[in-house]
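Q: C-alpha cells for this one, please.
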Amino acid sequence: MFYMILSLHLIGAAIWTGGHIILALTVLPRALAARDPGILTRFEQGFERVGMPALLVQVAGGFWLAHDLEPDYGLWFSFSDVLVTGIAVKLILLAVTIMFAINARFRVIPTLSAETLPIMAWHIRAVTVVSVLFVLTGAFLRTGGF
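A: Here is the predicted structure, written as C-alpha cells:
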C-alpha cells in the first residue's frame, strides 16, 4: 500500500510541478510578450483537467504519508524533529498554495486583462516556486536530507 500511495503522490507532484514549470518558463513569457492573457487561459483550461486531479491525489496521498511518518497529528506542528518539521513545512506550503489559488480565482482571474497580466504572472511564479519547494521538502523527508 505504501508504494502505491507514494507512487501516486510522486506522479501527482510530477504533473503539478512540471506543469507549473512549463507554464512559468514557456507559456507565461509568451503571454507577457504578446500582452495576451488568452495564452494563459488556453493553457490553464487544458492543464486544469490533469493538474487539479493531480493536486488532489497529492494532498490525499500527502496526508496518508505524513500519518505514516508521524501518526500523532498533534505533533505535526511541534517542530520537535526533522520529520515533523518536514511535515509542518509541507502543510505550510499547502496553505500558501491554497491562498494563492483563492486569490487568483476570485480576485485576479475575473479581471484578467493585458493590464493585470503582471499580477497573474506574479501568482504563477510564486506557485511554481512553492511547487518546487514541495518537491524538495518531500525529497528531504524521504532521503534524510542533504
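A few notes: The chain has a mean pLDDT of 94. Residues 2-34 form the longest helix (33 residues).
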